[in-house]
Amino acid sequence: MTRIATHEKLSHLSQGKIDELLDRYYAGERIASLLEQFDIDVRPSALVGLFPPKVHDDLHCPYCDGQSMISKRSSRSGYSRERPYCPSCNHQNIRDCRCKNCVSQRQQIRAAEEAKRRDVIQRFYGPKKTSDLSRSLTFLDALSLLSLARHSLCENLVTVSPYSENQPKFAPTFEITNDLVRHLYGKGYLWISEESDVEAFTFNEAMDDIEGYYPTRVQWLFLPGCSAHEKREFLHDTEELVRHGDWREDWYGEADTVYHIIGKYECLEYFDYLLRQRDFEIDKFGEKTHSTFEDILKRYSIAQTFNITWMAVRDTVDYLAKEGVPRYQGKNYFIGAVQRKADRATANKWDVKHSRRDFGCPQSVLSATYFNLFLEIGDKGLESPLPKLDA
């Protein structure tokens, strides 16, 4: 039990007199009279601060054996909510109590919960080995893996960071980055590390099952379970295959398809960049936007599509300002304007110039690897007509 000390300015009073003072104060007697009668040298407004705390005999500290909780006396002229606390350890019966005992208990609970979640993560994402590095790679497999190695493969060849924001983007858009990561994960070329932050996963209520994960927050293993030597050999052999052009027949058709995919996402990236420059943001591009650029790229190169897009966005911004169209409505005008600009260019047989890549919208690593390593055409990839696809 902690003894409650009497304030020095009340030390001349017996416990009975203090109890009488309290009763008369809360009964509403004039404070000046009470100060005079009880010989207390203090300003009237400060009297309540001298009173001994209220003891709550029905509330006991869960940490200090037998210790009753106490609370400060409230002024009779105003409302003050009682906040009982332990005079020994300062514990309060509130959810976010900051006493050392509660802080320690919460830390222990969090540690136990984290250990439990860590066990579940290890059960789901324990050691795994890429089944067979010698199996036939698809063109998309090879492009994605070599691009990732150039993008963010760490020095010890263990992890990659496809979503890193501290370097050039892996792929033109977040959407295609997600698609490629899921593709490689599904084929076992990437795996989620069991050492990933537990906050990167969502668990069921019982915390014995993983319901999902955040791709941008987990740690991605590159060619899981393979030794550094095996990974070096794999990357070397794959690059040799790419550079010497000794491709399987199916690679050629797939390379053409990838050209169209990269071209479309390059255009989507540039379109998004132009809109954000002008404070127009579109959360997600829908089917109309995708099909519009797919159609334009059948007639024009990527660089020409850039130019058409730039002209359309410029003209639309001018139109919206002149007509006073609200910004929240204006974002719906742009893709239609791009389509109309492309149709007009085709109908009038315009000599559409090739736009250069904007410095504020640099080439992604995936695109650079495709045009520089696989096709060996460099910047001409933007200006070349896209290959015809089989119907």
Describe the structure.
- Strand 1 and strand 2 form a beta hairpin.
- The mean pLDDT is 91.
- This protein is mainly alpha-helical.
- The strands form three sheets. It has a three-stranded antiparallel beta sheet.
- The termini are far apart.
- Helices cover 47% and strands 7% of the residues.
- The radius of gyration is 36 Å and the shape is elongated.
- The protein contains 13 helices and seven strands.
Instruction: Report the principal-axis shape.
Output: elongated
Tally of individual helices: 13
Tell me the number of strands.
7
Question: Unreliable stretches, pLDDT < 50, 5 or more residues?
Answer: none
| Structure classification | mainly alpha
Radius of gyration: 36 Å
- Portion in helices: 40-55%
Strand arrangement within the widest β-sheet reads: 3-7-4
Instruction: Give the biggest beta sheet.
Output: 3 strands, antiparallel
